[in-house]
Amino acid sequence: MAIAGSEQIVPASSNAQFPAFENILNLRDVGKTINDFLGEKRVVEGRLFRSARPDDATLSDRKRLKNELGIKAVMDLRTVTEHVNQAKKREGDLKIPALLQSNEALAEPVKIPGMKYLEININGKGFERSLLWQLKATSFAKLATLMLLGYRMEAISILGREVMQPRGLVGLGYDSLDHCGAEIADALRAFSCSNNLPMVAHCTQGKDRTGLVITLILLLLEIPLKAITYDYCLSEAELLPERESRLVEIRQIGLTDDFAGCPPDWVEKMHAYLEGKYGGIQAYCTKIGFSEEDRTSLRDLLKG
């Protein structure tokens, strides 16, 4: 059982584990973060990594991921819309000579040769349906019309303003637990396979969806809540270099600036929700199809 701390742990800055990567934010070894915070080895280091999107990684970054960190697999938790937007951005970047000169990796394949890529849309169809059902009939009709006309971002902004914003990061975390069980099980199962490790998991910011998957893994490893909270809250400082550009993206989908932060009580609330609604992390995993055998494999690979 994870242990709740009486105080909130909010780091003021990131914990430098290795020289900063040139163009990958929020990258860290979760095992080392937890072990350094607790002062004891509770998680195997060098196997469980998290980051923001690595799409703009430089050639040096790509080599370091593969050779220095030994990353074998990349878990991408983003939505179809995010992939479409990123592809458009990359296409535009390729037309700018100055960007091509400053980042030679733009001319390379998006996926690093020799690495396995696991694309798991953690907020998939079930999550989308749960949001749509919360819309008023008039808003649903407007959203459907915009989607049919190809105005995808404008349609999503309706969901953002009318459903996601009122739910907040905590409420959306609950919704993910309730409606994304199959996808969460797939993500957890990937970390229980030795052939995938070391692996880095990411979404766009590497904060919320990535944070949920990492939190569940750490709960399964019986890590104290104060340590899980510390790792989760590190993302806020790690993402500061691109805060303004990310705020633009957040506002485009109808959300306010607080969605760029890390609520310090988020981990404790996810834990309490799991306990109250499902009977705890073990029962939740059984419900979503992440078996006891899978859990044993994950613990054998990641528990220090």
User: What's the Cα radius of gyration?
Assistant: 19 Å
Strand order of the largest sheet: 1-2-5-3-4
Task: Outline the biggest β-sheet.
Answer: 5 strands, mixed
Specify the overall morphology.
globular
- When the domains are counted, the total is 1
CATH first level: which class? Alpha Beta
Let me know the average pLDDT: 90
Beta-strand content bin = 5-15%
Q: Separation of termini?
A: 16 Å
How many helical stretches? 14
Instruction: Report the structural category.
Output: mainly alpha
InterPro entries: Prot-tyrosine_phosphatase-like, Tyr/Ser_Pase_IphP-type
Protein name: Tyrosine protein phosphatase-like protein
GO molecular function: phosphoprotein phosphatase activity
Pfam families: Y_phosphatase3
Descriptive tags:
disordered N terminus; Protein-Tyrosine Phosphatase, Chain A; 55% helix; globular; five-stranded mixed beta sheet; mainly alpha; 304 residues
Question: Care to describe what's here?
Answer:
By secondary structure, the chain is mainly alpha-helical. The protein has one domain (28-302): Protein-Tyrosine Phosphatase, Chain A (Alpha-Beta Complex), CATH 3.90.190.10. It has 14 helices and 5 strands. The chain has helices spanning 30-38, 59-68, 80-93, 97-102, 125-132, 137-148, 152-179, 181-191, 209-220, 225-238, 243-252, 266-278, 281-288, 292-302; strands at residues 28-29, 48-51, 73-76, 116-119, 199-202. The radius of gyration is 19 Å and the shape is globular. Residues 1-14 have low confidence and may be disordered. One of its GO terms (molecular function) is phosphoprotein phosphatase activity.
